[in-house]
Amino acid sequence: MDKIIIFDTTLRDGEQAPGASLNQKEKLEIAQALTHLGVDIIEAGFPISSKGDFEAVNAVAKAIKGPAICGLARAIKKDIDAAYEAIKLSRKPRIHVFLATSKIHMKYKLKKAEDEILRLAIESVKYAKKYCSDIEFSPEDASRSEREFLFQVVEEVISAGATTVNIPDTVGYTEPAEYGDLIKSIKENVPNINQAIISVHCHNDLGLAVANSLEAIKMGARQVECTINGIGERAGNASMEEVVMAIKTRKDIFQGIATRIHTEQIYKVSRLVSKLTGFVVAPNKAIVGGNAFRHEAGIHQDGILKERSTYEIIKPEDVGFTGTGIVLGKHSGRHAL
C-alpha cells in the first residue's frame, strides 16, 4: 500500500483557534491519544511563541514514543534554535520552517523582495539541517504565490536539505481542481521533487479543506496536515477524521492508498479534544457528529433495519461510535417502534 503520512497539527494550528488554549497537561493527554490513534507526526506547538508553549512542546517530546515530534519555526535563527531545543529529546525530531512566498504577504507583511525571500528560505533550511535530518519547509500562502517563483523556492529548499515540502492553502482560497493542478505542476516543474515528500496543509475558509487535501493526494501528495474535528485558525483546518475515512471508504478512488490510523479510536479522540478545548462538535459534523449515525426518518429507519448499507456508508463501530442509531421522533414510523 502507498502510505499517506498523517501530520497532526491539533496541538499547534488547532490550538491557535480563538478560545482553544491548552495547558501542558492537556497537550500531553491529547498527544498520548494521538499516539494511540496512530498518527505519524505530531506538531506539538510553536516553541518561540511563549515560555509555556516551549515547555509543553518539550514535555511532549520527552514523553511520546512512536510519532515524530515537530516544532514550528519562522525562517529566523532564534526560532529554529528554540524549536530544536524543545524537540531534541524526541526519538524522531522534526523542525518545520515556514516563510511566505505570495506577493501579498511579501509586500505587506514581510516587506521583502523575491530574491531576499529565496535567500532566507535557503539559509533557514541549511541552518535547521545542522540540528536534525528531518526538515520540513512551508512556503506560506503557496496557493496564492506566483507559480514560477514557488517552483524556484521549492527546488532550492530541497537542494538545501528539506525532506518534506508543504504546500499550504493558508487562507482557504483555492478549490480542488485548481489545487490539484498546483500539486501536479510542482511535480512536473521542480526537477528534484522526488527527493522530498509533498505535503499539503489546507484551511477551511470556503469549506473545501478536506476536498482540496483529497485532490492533492490524487495528484501525488503523500503527507496531509490536519486536525482532530477540523479545529484551527478562523474556519479551521482539514478534518483528520474526514480525510482518513474518505480514503478508507472510497478505496475504488484511492486505490492502493492507506493511512496507519486506528479508526476505531477516532470518536474517543474527537470527544477528548472537544472536552479539553471547550469546542462542541456540531451534531451534523461528518464522521464524529452526534447525528452522523442516527436516523429519525421512517424510510431511512426501515432501510437500515433491513440492510444497514442502504443508508450507512461507514459502520459506526469502525470509528468507535457506540449507542443506538434509531431515534424516535415525529418522522419515525412503525418499523422503528
- What does the radius of gyration come to? 21 Å
CA-CA gap between termini = 44 Å
Q: Describe the strand arrangement of the main beta sheet, using strand numbers.
A: 2-3-4-5-6-7-8-9
Q: Would you count the extended β strands for me? A: 10
User: What percent of residues adopt helix (DSSP H or I)?
Assistant: 40-55%
Short description:
This protein has helices at 10-14, 24-37, 51-63, 77-87, 103-110, 114-129, 147-160, 176-189, 209-218, 240-249, 266-277, 298-306; strands at 2-3, 5-8, 41-45, 68-74, 93-100, 135-140, 164-169, 197-202, 223-226, 257-258.
Describe this structure in words.
- The longest helix has 16 residues.
- This protein has an 8-stranded parallel β-barrel with strand order 2-3-4-5-6-7-8-9, surrounded by 7 helices. It has a two-stranded parallel ribbon with strand order 1-10.
- Strand 3, helix 3 and strand 4 form a beta-alpha-beta unit.
- It contains 12 helices and 10 strands.
- Helix 2 packs antiparallel against helix 11, helix 3 runs parallel beside helix 4 and helix 6 packs parallel to helix 7.
Throw out a few tags for this protein:
single chain; alpha/beta; two-stranded parallel sheet; 12 helices; 10 strands; 40% helix
SSE blueprint:
Blueprint: E1 2-3, E2 5-8, H1 10-14, H2 24-37, E3 41-45, H3 51-63, E4 68-74, H4 77-87, E5 93-100, H5 103-110, H6 114-129, E6 135-140, H7 147-160, E7 164-169, H8 176-189, E8 197-202, H9 209-218, E9 223-226, H10 240-249, E10 257-258, H11 266-277, H12 298-306
Parallel strand pairs: 1-10, 2-3, 2-9, 3-4, 4-5, 5-6, 6-7, 7-8, 8-9
